[in-house]
Specification:
By secondary structure, this protein is an alpha/beta fold. It has helices at 17-21, 42-48, 53-64, 70-80, 126-144, 157-166, 185-192, 208-220, 222-227, 238-255, 273-283, 300-307, 334-341, 346-359, 368-375, 385-399, 405-414, 436-443, 470-483, and strands at 3-5, 32-34, 101-107, 110-116, 148-153, 172-179, 199-205, 230-231, 263-268, 288-295, 309-311, 361-363, 378-382, 424-428, 464-467. Helix 16 packs across helix 18. It binds pyridoxal-5'-phosphate. Residues 124, 126, 157, 235, 268-274, 325-326, 406, 429-430 line the site of pyridoxal-5'-phosphate (PLP).
Length: 487
């Protein structure tokens, strides 16, 4: 399996899965993709139906990472996808399934269900990929005798998923910036209560954008980055995308009885990483009818799928919503889909994403390519705070099921795209406890709290406060890398 850049540079070079695992963007600013998607045969699909999650993950991942010995990869997936890790379930028997399917009912002739992706350590779907990444990173670094210092900025879900995936891993430290006193008490406690010596929580005196600017400034200091072995785990990481392909297969098998059936998925979307994995599953041959992209008020993606116009937003135009993990101004994984939409023409992708930088977007409405969006199965919709609250209330009353704000956006939009006879699977991306304020508003009661999280906010917290100053952060990192100082 060879990986290429969406922007075409270095077309003659060969890049294996392990080569691109620890990196971010390709040298030309593009994103990595396989030179062609592996296809799944009818025999394979039939055999995979009976596999437990970890072995299904092995089968799918091995198609993309043929440079990792099969026995090692199988051991990694079995160690990652265990019922002990995905144990925050409503019903204990479901832990073994890793991503259980919860049937809601039949609406407009379509069986409607939730695919639970948030039963892992941080109660958001990002654990599904990040837990694998932690084990893959540790494995690859050990093989080459290297170390890695992950620097990131978070307003919640990503940072905690990264910390829980990397805690205690040999050869890895995590330096995570978060805005001081700006996260919810629950999210703060999730991150800051970690006591592992390789995890460093840095509370920055500023807002999330300040944290992100610091990460950018440090990443642009190439000498510092190389000397301190700085890396990232953001959503463009290819291994994260491919790990997410697995649960589309798992969800398909759970919602159908035979491989002649088709299903649709609705995906609460921000950076387009999750739904990009659905697109890849479909390209591999999984019988997916529709991929429904659900956004909140930050509707960059919905606008594109409705009109063909991709227009990134300025910081001032980006809303802070009650489904905050989808509050994006541009969708960092979108370029991977555009590459496929344009028939894999890197010169055109390069031009379009130059237009994004220089003119703030591009317009495919008039081009024949936009019509192909339908061939790829994509439709979309958006949500508001009012519809989010209404959906949470409705699902609780009708199905006795509590859902979080992001999943509510998904369900709201899914209902606009139901087709009789075709199961609709909504991806559940977080548990309600993470976004308690809106649950209280909608249901006038406390969100459900998995047993392992009782008393979380009272645990001792470990973090350091720094001013919003990249130089101070660099000094902090350098000191700890040099001396392995546990703060
Ligand atoms: C990250 C996140 C999303 C958005 O996923 P993308 O891959 O960025 O599209 C949706 N819901 C929750 C809860 C998240 O944490």
């Amino acid at each position: 399996m060879n990986y290429i850049s969406t922007r075409g540079a270095g077309a003659g070079e060969r890049h294996s899965f392990s080569d691109i695992l620890l990196g971010g963007l390709a040298k030309d600013g593009g994103l990595y993709l396989p030179s062609s998607y592996p296809r799944v045969s009818a025999e394979e699909l039939a055999r995979w139906r009976a596999l437990p999650y970890a072995d299904l993950a092995f089968e799918i991942l091995s198609k993309f990472s043929d440079d990792i010995p099969a026995d090692d990869l199988r051991e990694l997936t079995r160690r990652t996808y265990t019922p002990q890790t995905y144990c925050n379930v409503r019903d204990d028997e479901q832990a073994a399934q890793i991503t259980p399917l919860k049937t809601l009912g039949i609406e407009e002739g379509a069986p409607l269900s939730l695919l639970e992706l948030s039963n892992g350590p941080t109660l958001a779907f990002k654990d599904m990929a990040m837990q694998l990444l932690g084990n893959l990173f540790e494995y690859t670094l050990a093989k080459h005798g290297e170390t890695l210092n992950i620097l990131g900025a978070t307003s919640g879900d990503t940072g905690s998923a990264a910390e829980y995936a990397m805690r205690g891993k040999r050869g890895i430290r995590v330096f995570m910036l978060s805005p001081h006193k700006k996260m919810s008490a629950f999210q703060t406690a999730q991150m800051y209560s970690l006591q592992d010596p390789n995890i460093f929580n840095i509370a920055v005196e500023g807002v999330f954008d300040d944290c992100q600017d610091i990460v950018k400034a440090v990443s642009n200091d190439h000498a510092f980055k190389a000397a301190q072995k700085i890396g990232t785990v953001n959503s463009i990481n290819w291994a994260r995308v491919v790990a997410q392909v697995v649960y589309y297969f798992k969800g398909y098998f759970a919602a159908t009885k035979s491989n002649d059936e088709r299903v649709s998925f609705t995906v609460p979307s921000g950076n387009f990483g999750n739904v990009c994995a659905g697109h890849i599953a479909r390209m591999m041959g999984l019988p997916i009818e529709r991929l429904v992209v659900a956004t909140n008020e930050n509707d960059v993606l919905d606008e594109f799928f409705r009109t063909g116009i991709y227009r990134v937003r300025k910081a001032a135009e980006t809303y802070h919503t009650s489904s905050p993990s989808m509050d994006i101004s541009k969708a960092s994984n979108f370029e991977r889909f555009v590459f496929d939409l344009l028939g894999r023409d890197p010169a055109r992708v390069l031009q379009l994403f130059r237009d994004v930088e220089e003119k703030g977007g591009f317009d495919l409405a008039a081009s024949g390519d936009f019509k192909r969006v339908k061939e790829f199965g994509f439709v979309s919709g958006s949500s508001t705070h009012a519809s989010r609250v209404e959906t949470i209330r409705d699902v609780f009353e009708r199905y006795d099921t509590m859902i979080d704000t992001h999943t509510a956006d998904g369900l709201k939009v899914a209902r606009e795209h139901l087709q009789a006879g075709i199961p609709m699977i909504v991806l559940e991306t977080a548990q309600p406890i993470k976004f308690g304020e809106t649950i209280r508003e909608a249901l006038l009661r406390e969100p459900e709290r998995p047993a392992a999280f009782v008393g979380l906010e009272a645990l001792p917290q470990r973090f350091d406060v720094l001013p919003a100053d990249a130089e101070r952060v660099k000094a902090y990192v350098a000191k700890r890398v040099a001396g392995s100082v546990a703060s």
